[in-house]
């Protein structure tokens, strides 16, 4: 690992941002978010890798691949937040700061969204601030990595 680098993982259905329930998730697309993250990070000399999958195992594989290769992780596990012990277990492999991001405020929504398998093992959680949450997560990580 040469300079600082952050992996950003987006879970299922986040590839449909912009089209998907815009009243909840807004009109920004995933490509918009990823390019904004790359732009903001490059100003801080941080490299960004992004990954989206609708498949739990593919996300587990990507987390395993990240072992010892990244300085930090931003993850929105989307619906798997509320169901996936496998993603939680994979995250426990990593010994770098992890920021969990949710575009919506999961605590204000249906009861099944209130529990996260990730929040108690993440360094921090950002919820309900829209896509800005991703940029705030980058800010937080870049401070931590100084
Ligand atoms: C989400 C919240 C989850 O409950 C939901 O399943 C998602 C998106 C969010 O970013 O607000 O897909 O993680």
Number of separate strands: 5
Biggest sheet character: 5 strands, parallel
Distance between the termini: 15 Å
- Within CATH, the superfamily carries the name Dehydroquinase, class II
Q: Strand share of the residues?
A: 15-25%
- Oligomerization category of the chains in this entry: single chain
Instruction: Give the helix proportion (percent range).
Output: 25-40%
User: Strand sequence of the main sheet, in spatial order?
Assistant: 2-1-3-4-5
Name the structural class.
Answer: alpha/beta
CATH class: Alpha Beta
What is the H/E order? EHHEHEHEEH
Question: Using only CA atoms, what is the Rg?
Answer: 14 Å
Cα shape? globular
What are the low-pLDDT stretches, counting only 5+ consecutive residues below 50? none
CATH architecture: 3-Layer(aba) Sandwich
Helix tally? Answer: 5
Mean pLDDT: 97
Number of domains: 1
The CATH topology is: Rossmann fold
Description of the structure:
- The protein is of the alpha/beta class.
- The protein is built from five helices and five strands, in the order E-H-H-E-H-E-H-E-E-H.
- It has helices at about 20-25, 30-40, 55-65, 85-90, 130-145, and strands spanning about 5-10, 45-50, 70-75, 100, 125.
- The chain is globular, with a radius of gyration of 14 Å.
- The chain binds 1,3,4-trihydroxy-5-OXO-cyclohexanecarboxylic acid.
- 1,3,4-trihydroxy-5-OXO-cyclohexanecarboxylic acid binds near residues 81 and 113.
- 1,3,4-trihydroxy-5-OXO-cyclohexanecarboxylic acid binds next to loops.
